[in-house]
Design a protein that fits this description.
mainly alpha
Length: about 220
């Protein structure tokens, strides 16, 4: 089933936005398997029948929630104003932005982890992450290119590999909270834990590409 049209009348759009917000919360707390349409409808203050009318199934609603979250995340990263910053500062700003998205949204880590399970188990349609990721690669590559041209970053960096590994490292304390917290010996989602992981991860990524070492 295709994603419901975003060109909806204001009343319908408002209802759909409430359903997406309710679904985001319930899916993050209970996962796709544990979430009940009745609970999502109750949270959104609509009937269960209206959920099925707009989305057809719980799986389509979940896919739409993931798509909506991906679009917000990607747009914030793509439109981040860093073109006038020195390369090292620009890259650090990108990395911090990625981390801060998870820090500000308490549901995003659990939702992302559930989304990984969903995409691994299902044949899913193309979404915002797929369609907008090339623009993020271009932005990331431009920062690296400026850094290599000015001698700040070493030559021969693969932008896609660095972007992928950076995304995993910056989000790992949220999406793999249990393992990371056990290994490092502190709660990576606590206030102090997030501060430590945020700076350590950014410093580690920068140290891997700098011509001159970064003190960790």
């Amino acid at each position: 089933m295709s994603k419901p049209s975003t060109r909806a009348e204001p009343g319908k759009r408002n209802t759909m936005n409430r359903l997406l917000a309710a679904g985001r919360q319930i899916f993050a707390l209970k996962g796709l398997a544990g979430a009940r349409v009745e609970d999502i409808a109750r949270e959104a203050k609509v009937t269960k029948q209206l959920v099925y009318h707009y989305y057809g199934s719980k799986e389509v609603l979940f896919s739409t929630v993931l798509d909506d979250a991906s679009q917000q995340i990607m747009q914030e990263l793509i439109t981040l104003d860093i073109d006038d910053l020195p390369p090292e500062e620009a890259l650090r700003s990108l990395l911090h932005c990625c981390f801060d998205q998870y820090m500000k949204d308490p549901h995003l880590g659990a939702l992302a982890l559930e989304g990984i399970r969903f995409h691994n188990a299902s044949e899913t349609r193309s979404n915002s992450f797929t369609s907008e990721s090339p623009a993020l690669v271009v932005k990331f590559s431009a920062v690296l290119k400026r850094g290599m041209e000015t001698g700040v970053f070493r030559q021969g960096i693969d932008a896609r590999l660095l972007l992928a590994s950076s995304a995993l490292l910056m989000s790992g304390g949220f999406t793999n909270h249990y393992t990371m917290s056990v290994l490092v010996g502190f709660d990576t989602t606590s206030e102090d834990g997030m501060r430590i992981w945020r700076e350590h991860s950014a410093n580690l990524i920068l140290a891997s590409i700098m011509q001159q070492p970064v003190r960790l």
